[in-house]
Design a protein that fits this description.
The protein has about 450 residues and is an alpha/beta fold. It has 17 helices and twelve strands. The strands form three sheets. Strands 1-2-3-4-5-6-7-8 form an eight-stranded parallel barrel. Strands 9-10 form a two-stranded antiparallel sheet. β9 and β10 form a beta hairpin. α7 crosses α8 and α11 packs across α17. The longest helix is centred in the middle third of the chain and has 31 residues. The two termini are about 15 Å apart. Bound molecules: zinc ion. The site of zinc ion has 5 residues, from α16. Zinc ion (ZN) binds next to α16.
């Protein structure tokens, strides 16, 4: 089972100066910054997934932070995806480079934003190894398997017929596109492996779609619409699909948000899946920011140490403007916190001293915000609990990855992009090894 990382243009300055908090001299973001696979001696994934809607500008396609600029789009197509992503050469040549349409970005349109011909041209020009036909997302997944889509309860009666027609329309559009897309791929001598997208309103309708795609000639299916589903619903979908298709037909799970439960999905003959969650959780999750694998093979999670940048935090700067904070006082506590953490990492100070300094900074931040002292104490106690656990376990000292060996405790500090993304890279590496081990340990 291959773990693909869905590209969100995450790179860092490889020579970032953490103590001086400065980018390296001569840094040019698009050229000298490094992706996770460049920074780590062992690539932390088995392939990359790039969404066409992130690269290609089109009417009605939602803007996202991942969106490439026009200049980047041109360079992407001119140089090809491998070269653009610096994912070429002998180290990476056998790793998958998969394209899909990023159907979330045009979910509000009546039809997909790109035609099968446009999508084929994009994959072909950029040199992908695998490419998904343009699909249209169906969000509903009714586990009771109704023959026709069922409108959600509470929908006004006059809208029900329209709703049902819309879901069926998306189902048909996805299959029609797949038929045309496969023909174009065949007419052009198969420059990449075409993938048939499975969309449906229930496990049974998805299984029917999978069988239809297989009948067209697809050997690799991409299961969509899984993002909002819980583990049991995803399993119901996979059971239904596997019962209808040949054992040798490959399955990819698109946007698999339950990546942490991958051990529950080893029995479905899944060839590949993509996820961003190990990287995203490094800075979006309230608690689980840093991954580590326990000796017996389960993942454990630690909370990063928040040391916000006084000058870089919109929240703190607003407080300064409103007269809540004194900037020089914040800066003093901030710098003492960082100094104490680094001294602890170097073996020159105790965990207790580091904890005290970090908590002093948090006290400085939180105390002016509360009129109720008890509520403030509660908030600080929460921060303290997570901080104590992280410092006592010092998990970065146990990690042998390039990131942790290179920057030590900085990986644990919740601060700039250069801190937080590196923690995400570390998580990808831990997660990738976890997937490999889970597969090895499963009979
Ligand atoms: Zn690490």
């Amino acid at each position: 089972m291959k773990f693909l990382y869905s590209d969100t243009q995450d790179f860092v300055d490889p020579d970032f100066d953490f103590v001086g908090e400065k980018f390296s001299a001569g840094r040019e973001k698009d050229h000298t910054d490094a992706y996770a696979h460049e920074l780590m001696s062992e690539p932390p994934y088995d392939g990359l997934l790039v969404a066409m809607s992130a690269v290609r500008q089109a009417e009605g396609v939602a803007k996202s932070k991942v969106r490439y600029t026009t200049a980047q789009e041109q360079r992407f197509l001119r140089d090809g995806a491998r070269r653009y992503l610096r994912f070429g050469g002998p180290r990476f040549k056998d790793l998958m480079l998969m394209g899909d349409c990023g159907a979330f970005a045009y979910v509000g349109l009546p039809r997909p934003a790109f035609t099968p011909q446009e999508v084929f041209d994009f994959y072909d020009e950029a040199g992908f190894t695998h490419g998904v036909s343009p699909d249209h997302i169906i969000f509903e997944c009714d586990l009771s398997n109704p023959k026709v889509p069922r409108a959600p309860e509470g929908l006004p009666p006059e809208e029900v017929a329209h709703y049902v027609a819309r879901v069926k329309d998306r189902y048909e559009i996805t299959l029609d596109n797949a038929r045309r897309f496969l023909q174009i791929v065949r007419d052009n001598d198969h420059p990449f492996e075409p993938m048939g997208p499975v969309q449906g309103w229930s496990p049974a309708s998805m299984a029917q779609a999978a069988q239809t795609l297989e009948g067209m000639g697809y050997r690799y299916l991409a299961i969509g619409g899984l993002v909002p589903l819980k583990v049991p619903a995803i399993k119901a979908v996979l059971h239904a699909i596997r019962a209808k298709i040949k054992p040798e037909t490959h399955i990819h799970l698109l946007g698999f948000a339950k990546a942490e439960s991958i051990d529950e999905f080893t029995g479905f003959g899944i060839t590949s899946f993509d996820s961003t969650s190990p990287l995203i959780r490094a800075f979006k999750d309230a608690k689980a920011n840093y991954y580590l694998e326990k000796p017996e093979g389960r993942l454990e999670y630690f909370t990063a140490i928040r040391v916000p940048q006084t000058l870089g935090s919109a929240r703190l700067m607003r407080g300064v403007k409103d007269g809540i904070y004194k900037p020089e006082s914040l800066a003093k506590f901030e710098s003492q916190a960082l100094k104490a953490l680094r001294a602890f990492d170097a073996g020159e100070a105790s965990a207790e001293a580091a904890r005290t300094a970090v908590m002093a900074y948090h006290n400085e931040i939180e105390a002016p915000l509360y009129s109720d002292g008890a509520r403030c104490d509660k908030k600080l106690a929460e921060i303290d609990k997570a901080l104590r656990e992280t410092l006592e376990a010092a998990p970065w000292k146990r990690c042998n990855c390039d990131i942790c060996r290179d920057i030590g405790i900085e990986v644990m500090v919740f601060r700039s992009n250069n801190h937080n993304r590196r923690r995400g890279f570390h998580n990808l590496g831990v997660y990738h090894r976890h997937v490999q081990r889970t597969l090895r340990d499963t009979p």
